[in-house]
């Protein structure tokens, strides 16, 4: 059974940091590129970051460049999203997703992702 389980969300003040984790099981994680998406209340889901299975290349939405860092640990079947300098506009439910594709990762095409987690909520507020 395929599972993607996100954790690490919570309430943080502006300027603070959080690290999200996504533990994968039920598929060959090492062969899948991974992505983080988010959906804020009343808004469409948007891509945040992705990481290639082939060479570890990383991609970021302009809104998070320089603040967020994606990484993966294939030995632990886990992908991470380190979020620094958080802003209120980062408030959203964050989802991790897996795709067997290794192209177009910079475009965050959600329908190309095969598996999705249930999400973890991040609230940035003073």
Can you walk me through this structure?
This protein is an all-beta fold. The protein has strands at residues 3-7, 10-12, 18-25, 33-39, 46-51, 58-60, 68-73, 78-83, 92-99, 115-116, 120-124. The strands form 2 sheets. Strands 2, 4, 5, 6, 9, 10 and 11 form a 7-stranded mixed β-sheet that branches. Strands 1-3-8-7 form a 4-stranded antiparallel β-sheet, with no helix packed on it. The protein is globular, with a radius of gyration of 13 Å. The mean pLDDT is 96.
What is the distance, rounded to the nearest whole angstrom, between the alpha carbons of the first and last residues?
40 Å
Average residue pLDDT: 96
- Order of helix and strand elements from N to C terminus: EEEEEEEEEEE
Tell me the major beta sheet.
Answer: 7 strands, mixed
Write down the Rg. 13 Å
What is the percent of helical residues?
Answer: under 10%
The secondary-structure class comes to mainly beta
Assign an overall shape.
globular
Number of strands: 11
Low-confidence stretches: none
Fraction in beta strands: over 45%
Number of helices: 0
């Amino acid at each position: 059974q395929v599972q993607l389980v996100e954790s690490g969300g919570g309430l943080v003040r502006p300027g603070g940091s959080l690290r999200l984790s996504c533990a994968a099981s039920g598929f060959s994680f090492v062969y899948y590129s991974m992505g983080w998406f988010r959906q804020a209340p009343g808004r469409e889901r948007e891509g945040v970051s992705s990481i290639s299975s082939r060479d570890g290349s990383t991609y970021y939405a302009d809104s998070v460049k320089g603040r967020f860092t994606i990484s993966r640990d294939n030995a632990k079947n886990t992908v991470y999203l380190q979020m620094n300098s958080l802003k209120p506009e980062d408030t959203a439910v964050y989802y991790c997703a897996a795709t067997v594709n290794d192209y177009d990762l910079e475009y965050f095409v959600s329908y190309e992702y095969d598996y999705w987690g249930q999400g973890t909520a991040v609230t940035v507020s003073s």
